[in-house]
Amino acid sequence: MNLRETLELLASGKLSVDEAQSKLSLSGIAAVADFARLDLDRHARKGVPEIIYAPGKTNDQLLEICSEMLKQAGRAIASGVNTEQGPVLRERFAGLVRETNEESRMIVIHRSDYELEQTGGRVGILSAGTADIPASEQARIVAEEMGCEVIRSYDTGVAGVHRLVDPLRQMIEAHVSVIIVAAGMEGALPSVVAGLVPVPVIGLPTSTGYGLGGGGITALLSMLQSCCPGLVAVNIDNGVGAGATAALIANQVAASGLHGR
Q: What does pTM read for this prediction?
């Protein structure tokens, strides 16, 4: 019994509060051998799907986890997939792979009968440079798997800030509820964008840069130290976290009926 079914029975009076509590404490978790416990109800409970972190897992473990997710939840989303794991997943789940993205190291697999519900949420994604695209694509995939429409534009950084004008205008005209801005180097672009738009901005620092302060450290500190209200930051290269947070915001706006106003 999943979360929704339990709540419906509780609402109808067919379950007592104590019975519902007991079932909820046991439901929504699937054990895979002795190495994984999957949170199957995360999307229903929180609005963010379970995302499988591939690094550190053997091919066999990853295949078993993805198989169980497909069986129980209808889809499997894997992040951090390496060059050995990718071909194994694509071969095992041939015909079910919805997206395989080598830049972002993500693979999305849908069971043949799985239908992704569109929420009406809209998210904008900008990258400062081409090197910031992998993290941006992580965010895009997660936001789309949470039902959002994503408007994106890449290579719009402050070294040629005039490139920002048209993409930003398109996002505002599309009534995005939040904008993710991925940037490495000095990490200036999120502050610029946050100073121009009337929606929250999520800074996504990336591990690009030279010498001292490289590896995303300078970009992260710059975003944290920004003087522009309305800008928050996730950790370095955390496109998954940026996409999930942006989609939560956009989906709340869409659900409230304020979208597009």
A: 0.85
Cα distances (Å, whole numbers) of residue 248 to 26, 69, 77? 26, 22, 17
Q: What are the tens digits of pLDDT across the range 66-110?
A: 998 888 888 999 999 999 999 999 999 999 999 888 889 999 999
Q: Residues 6 or more apart from 31 whose CB is under 8 A from it? A: 37, 38
* Topology (CATH level 3) of domain 122-255: Rossmann fold (3.40.50)
CA 35 – CA 32 distance, rounded (Å): 6
Longest dimension (CA), the chain: 64
**C-alpha span between 238 and 147 (Å, rounded):** 20
Query: Cα–Cα distance between 153 and 163 in angstroms, integer?
Result: 10
Which value, to the nearest 10 degrees, does the dihedral of the CA atoms of residues 35, 37, 40, 44 take? -140
**Do residues 182 and 135 make contact, with C-beta atoms less than 8 angstroms apart?**
yes
Give residue limits of the domains in the chain.
33-116, 122-255
Task: Give per-residue pLDDT as tens, 102-125.
Answer: 889 999 999 999 999 999 999 999
